[in-house]
Write a structure and sequence with these properties.
Length: 298
C-alpha cells in the first residue's frame, strides 16, 4: 500500500493524458489507498483517507465504471465515519446506487449503523445493524479485493454496540460473546483482516457486563482484553487503542471494587490515569481521575 501511495503521481498523470485508460487506473489506486492497511502498519489519517476517497469518487464519475464508483462512494462514507462526521456518513451511504454489490451494501450498512449511533439515532440503527449481520452470514468468502470491506465479526461488534446503546444489554452480551468466540476460532491470517475488532469487542463486552452487575464475568474476560490491547496495535493506532485501554482499566477497577478487592481496584485506577496522561488518552483523563478519586474517598 505504501508503494501505491508513493506512485500515485503516475496514475494521476495517466488520467490527465489518457482519461479513458488512466481514469479507472487512478480510481483503483486511490480506492486501494483508502482501504485499511496491512496488519501492524499505521493506517493513513482519516483526513487523508477522506481526501483520497473524494478524489476517487470524482475520477469514477468521469468513467463508465459503475462498480468502481459504488466502491468509491462506500469508502468515502467510511472515511467520513472515521472523521467523526456521522451525519454526512449516513447521507453518503444513502447516495449509494441500488445496484451496489452485496458486499458493498453490507459494508455500507455497517457504516450507516455506526453513523446513526453517532448522531443519537440508536433505535433506528438496530434494524440496520441486524440486517448487516444477516447479510454477512450468507455472503461467500470475500476475494482479496473485498477483504477490507467489513466482515461478520465487525458487523457483530457493531450490532452488540447498538444493542447496548438502546439498553438491550443482555442481548448485547450474547452478540459480543458470539463475536469473541468467532474471533477465537480464526487463524492468524484471518485475524489480520479484523485485528481491531477483537480488542473492541472484549473491552466493550466488559463494559456491558459491568453495567449488568456481572462483575466476576467481566473480570474473567479482563486478562484477554488487556492482552488484546498490547502489541503492534498499541503503536499503529494509538488514537483508538489508548482510549479503549483507559476505559477498560476503569471498568476493571470498578469491578474489583464491587467484588471486594480494593488493592487491585486501585492498581487499575492508577494505571488508567497513567495511560490517560498520554496524548491520545487525554479525552479519558477526567473519567480516570474520577475513578481514582472515588477509590481514595471510599
Amino acid at each position: 500500500m505504501g508503494l501505491v501511495r508513493i506512485l500515485l503521481p503516475l496514475p494521476r498523470a495517466a488520467a490527465k493524458w489518457a482519461p479513458e485508460k488512466g481514469g479507472p487506473l487512478l480510481g483503483a489506486a486511490l480506492s486501494y489507498c483508502v482501504t485499511p492497511s496491512w496488519a501492524g502498519l499505521p493506517p493513513p489519517s482519516p483526513a487523508r483517507r477522506l481526501a483520497w476517497a473524494e478524489e476517487a469518487v470524482e475520477v469514477y464519475r468521469a468513467t463508465a465504471d459503475a462498480e468502481g464508483l459504488s466502491r468509491a462512494l462506500a469508502l468515502r462514507a467510511h472515511a467520513l465515519l472515521l472523521s467523526g462526521r456521522h451525519e454526512e456518513a449516513c447521507t453518503a451511504v444513502a447516495a449509494l446506487p441500488g445496484r451496489a454489490s452485496p458486499t458493498l451494501a453490507a459494508f455500507a450498512g455497517d457504516v450507516r449503523a455506526q453513523g446513526l449511533v453517532g448522531v443519537g439515532r440508536a433505535e433506528e440503527a438496530v434494524s440496520v445493524a441486524h440486517a448487516c449481520v444477516k447479510a454477512y452470514r450468507v455472503l461467500p468468502s470475500p476475494d482479496r479485493r473485498d477483504r477490507a470491506l467489513g466482515s461478520l465479526p465487525g458487523a457483530l461488534r457493531t450490532y452488540g454496540m447498538v444493542l447496548a446503546a438502546v439498553g438491550r444489554k443482555e442481548e448485547s452480551v450474547a452478540v459480543y460473546e458470539e463475536c469473541a468466540a468467532l474471533l477465537a476460532a480464526m487463524s492468524l491470517r484471518e485475524l489480520a483482516h479484523v485485528e481491531l475488532v477483537r480488542p473492541q469487542v472484549l473491552s466493550e463486552l466488559i463494559g456491558v457486563l459491568r453495567a449488568l452487575g456481572r462483575y466476576e464475568d467481566a473480570l474473567g474476560v479482563g486478562p484477554e482484553a488487556r492482552e488484546a490491547l498490547r502489541g503492534p496495535l498499541a503503536w499503529s493506532v494509538p488514537e483508538i487503542v489508548l482510549p479503549l485501554r483507559v476505559r477498560l482499566l476503569i471498568d476493571l477497577a470498578r469491578c474489583h471494587t464491587a467484588t471486594g478487592d480494593p488493592a487491585e481496584a486501585r492498581a487499575c485506577a492508577v494505571a488508567a490515569v497513567a495511560e490517560a496522561r498520554k496524548p491520545h488518552g487525554a479525552g479519558e483523563l477526567t473519567s480516570a481521575l474520577d475513578c481514582l478519586a472515588e477509590l481514595r474517598d471510599s
